[in-house]
Amino acid sequence: MDFDFSADEKRFIEEVRAFLREQALLPDAADVMAPNRDSDSMLSDTPARRRFNREMAKRGYLGMSWPKEYGGSEKSGIYEYLLNEELARVGAPLIGKGIGIVGKTLIRHGSDKLKTEFLPKIRNAEIEFALGYSEPGAGSDLASLKLKAERSGEGWLFNGQKIWNTSAHFADWYWLAARTDPQAAKHKGISLFLVPMHEKGITVSAIHTLGEHRTNHVFLDNVWVHDDYRVGELNKGWTYISEALDFERFTIYPFSPLEAKLEQMWKHIKTTQRNGQRLTAVPEIRRQMARLVAQVETAKMLQRSVIFSASQGGVPTVEASMCKLYTTALSQRLANTMMDILGADGLLHKSWPDAPDAGKWEWLYRSSALETIGAGTSEIQKNIIARRGLGLPLTN
Amino acid sequence: MLNSHEPEHLTLLRDTLRRFIDKEMPRELVRKWDREDHFPTDVYQGLVELGLTGLTVAEEYGGTGRDITAMIMTIEELSARSMAVATGYIQSACYAGLNIADVGSEVQRNTLLPRVAADGLKFSYGFSEPDVGADIASVRTTAVRRDGKIIINGQKRWCSGAKIAQYIYALVRSGPVEDRYNNLSLILVPTDAPGITYQPQATLGLRGDGTYDVNFDQVVVSEDDIVGGPEGWNAGWKKLVGPGLNVEKIEVAAMALGISRAAVDDAWAYAQDRKQFGKPIASIQSIRHMLADVKTKWQACHLMTYHAASVVEGQQSADVATAMAKLFVCDTARDVVLTCQQIMGAYGYADGFDMERYVRDILVMPILGGSSAIQKNNIANRLGLPR
Q1: CA distance linking residue A129 with residue A113, whole number of Å
Q2: What are phi and psi of B223, to 5 degrees?
Q3: A378 interfaces chain B, CB cutoff of 8 Å
Q4: Minimal Cα–Cα distance from A232 to chain B, Å?
Q5: What is the pLDDT of residue A355?
Q6: Chain A 151-170, CB below 8 Å of chain B: which residues?
Q7: A23 and A73 together in one domain
């Protein structure tokens, strides 16, 4: 396989880079682009972030792969992937779940009412969503979720709780998976709904994490929503959730942050002396760096195989699992290696003025712990590879 | 019990410690200390009253007689619950007790050791500086001797527990730069001496004791505060790299052992409670294997740590055994904790569970007290590997 981007794709990359260079000059750029703490800008809500997203909308970057009738430009999904790579490289917010999971599912399965109400707002970056999937008892085994939706008049009454709902504290709407048929097999009794996040009966409670990002525990107590806000067919929720993940797999794990971190490691190592010796001359550091460079190249190739498969019209489920499994563990190895190289200084928090690279590495050590857990744990990725890729039957 | 040959007094000590920890150091409080960067003085005094800081002090000075294995066990047990308390204990029993017994003057032994045993007197190490880490002989903080007084100027970094200690155990340059290794002295600087200022550092883990940049500006102490007395002037290096260094390596191993044990225990219990796919995740083979791996690795860490302690006690040359224990236990314990975090999924990442604290606390273990790289050098050199 010899994969390269087409001339138009390369032109697009340059266009996005020029856009980001322009944005970097604005006074609020530091709030939008946080290259030392990637994903900070994704997970918190600031006026700067909203402004930036609206600017992306104006440029036509939101909904590039959507059909023209919904305001999209019917481009291949590769453009969204390329955009995300460039955004991730500078630590800017990626195009989010609105354009991806919510928008694409509504386009395929939503009613005309929902399409009319939500798609323009998503494309114009006027609306934020939180995903309500996981529950205290339903993590890797998501299909066992229990949050109840019961018929009540012309709508549905929700009772139960969700956990790990990042952005629930600032979202406008909730993309909620609920149990609508408790009698059916667990995959066949789930439906998807859109619920206003500020509806009476919803309580959002903060969970603070090792990586300093807030996530949330959400409680629903007799929350009522009209049946118009049910997405697609009743009890087809699991199919929609899985399908949406399949569209998204190749846009959600950008490779550029790994490359950027490796470059920053090199820069530190090349410009630092310790005990009168250049770090580049320390044999153990040379060995570690050589190993990491080879592994980052491997990660790049795994990422490319995901894109290649998608560009051929496939659904790169297995390729994406391999890529996620490998790159997330690599990101942790990279953080650990840099902490070893920095020694005690590496422990300094960003609030300490002398912290190397503004505390990036200490923070990365903490925050990268999430990578092998969130969005399908490494164990789940191995199951996908074994079952769907290798055809190994599940025996127990 | 893990070791069926454990002497009875150690089994009794472990039981006493566990009762004390369960009663005085409940998890909720420990989380609060970590969150608020608080050192629980009253709990620490309880440990002192149990006689635990006296485990490094000879009976003639009011201690229970030096028992390195018992001291290591105390560190392991405390670290399995709270690093705030464990590091405070080390500042007394190890930093103050062991050093003064080994390299203090007669006067210092008579005055300070009883305070270690009875009051839990604490030292904070003042070795590193902003530009001096592994190459500790290059310190730039200076001490000048004038009219029977010592005047100290300079800056120290990573002074852990400086604000709860009574003395900074400071390594300073007291002779000409060119007399490398013969130009250093260890000085006991009272932490409330005029001219000292403290700047707290924000760090990843080990909250409770705090770590500080300590600045000495014309700080005056007496000749009696030179470690070893007036004869200790310019004799600091030998005192620093003496047998005490071997014990320090296994203190760190014991901390790593304690933290990783707590992580294994939590993951072990969680895997049995947590149900996914209709069964406890402990019944899923990949999780069972992870748990079997961490138990096995932890057992190896335990054996190496206590073996090294017994070599130190046996008065044999312990340089290699302690370096190997420091290297292996700290690196392995870090892997163990990260695997346990993975088992707990998102709960291992969230506040309100202890796993994220174990992750923050374990990272410094391969760095503290001689990094893994330094231990590798020690091992190769001490085993006589030709260059």
Answers
A1: 18
A2: -60, -25
A3: yes
A4: 26
A5: 87
A6: 163-164
A7: yes
What average pLDDT does chain B have?
93
Q: Does A43 have pLDDT greater than 80?
A: no
Q: Tell me the per-residue pLDDT of A302-354, one tens digit each, with 9 for 90 and over.
A: 988 888 888 787 788 899 899 999 999 999 999 999 988 988 888 888 888 88
Domains: count for chain A? 3
A377 touches chain B (CB under 8 A): yes
ipTM over 0.95: no
pLDDT at A284: 87
Residue A290's contacts (CB-CB under 8 Å, 6 or more residues apart) are: none
**Domain extent at residue A16:** 7-95
Task: Choose the closest CB to A137 out of B275, B364, B366.
Answer: B275
| Beta carbons within 10 angstroms of residue B22's beta carbon | 11
Which residues fall within 8 angstroms of residue A5, CB to CB, at 6 or more apart?
A13, A78, A82
In a domain, A109, yes or no: no
Chain B contact present for A275, CB below 8 A: yes
Does residue A42 surpass a pLDDT of 90? no
| Pick from B158, B205, B346: CB nearest A164 | B346
CATH of B8-121, one of 1.10.760.10, 1.20.1300.10, 1.10.540.10, 3.40.50.1820: 1.10.540.10
Least confident of A198-212, B220-234, B237-251: B237-251
Sole residue written with tokens 């846009």: A251
Q: For helices A317-342 and A256-271, give the axis angle rounded to 10 degrees.
A: 20
3-state class of A178 per DSSP? Answer: strand
Give the domain B125-235 fold: Butyryl-CoA Dehydrogenase, subunit A; domain 2 (2.40.110)
User: Scanning every residue of chain B, which has its alpha carbon at the shortest distance from the alpha carbon of A374?
Assistant: B346
CB under 8 Å, gap of 24 or more: what pairs does B374-379 form? B374/B134, B375/B249, B375/B323, B375/B324, B375/B326, B375/B327, B376/B327, B378/B319, B378/B320, B378/B323, B379/B320, B379/B323, B379/B324, B379/B327
pLDDT of residue B362: 95
In chain A, the residue whose alpha carbon lies closest to the alpha carbon of B280 is A137
At B75 the pLDDT is: 98
One domain, residues A253 and A384 = yes
| Residues of B in Cβ contact (< 8 Å) with A134 | 346
Determine how many CB atoms are found less than 10 A away from the CB of residue B259: 29
- Write out the residues of chain B at the interface with chain A, using a CB-CB cutoff of 8 A: 128, 130, 133-135, 138, 158, 201-205, 275-278, 286-287, 338, 341-342, 345-346, 348-352, 356, 359-360, 363-364, 366-368, 371-373
Chain A nearest CA to B349, separation (Å)? 5
The values of phi and psi at residue B210, to 5°, are: 75, 155
Candidates B349, B368, B375: best to mutate against A (most CBs of A within 10 A) is B349
Tens of pLDDT along B310-333? 999 987 789 999 999 999 999 999
The pLDDT of residue B3 is above 60:
no
Q: Residue B385 and residue B234: Cα distance in Å, rounded? A: 31
For residue range B339-365, list pLDDT tens digits in order: 999 999 999 999 889 999 999 999 999
* Closest chain A C-alpha to B383 CA, distance in angstroms: 20
Q: Which chain A residues touch B128 with a CB distance below 8 Å?
A: 344
Q: Is A312 on the interface with B (CB under 8 A)?
A: no
Measured CA to CA, the distance from residue B87 to residue B364 in angstroms comes to 13
The distance of B205 to chain A (nearest Cα, Å) reads 8
Q: Which pair of tokens denotes residue A159?
A: 């009772």
Q: Does A150 contact chain B (CB < 8 Å)?
A: no
Q: How far is CA B31 from CA A188, B20, B356, in A?
A: 42, 17, 11
Q: Residue A365 is nearest to which of B342, B363, B373, comparing CB atoms?
A: B363
Nearest-CB residue to A348 (from B135, B203, B342):
B203
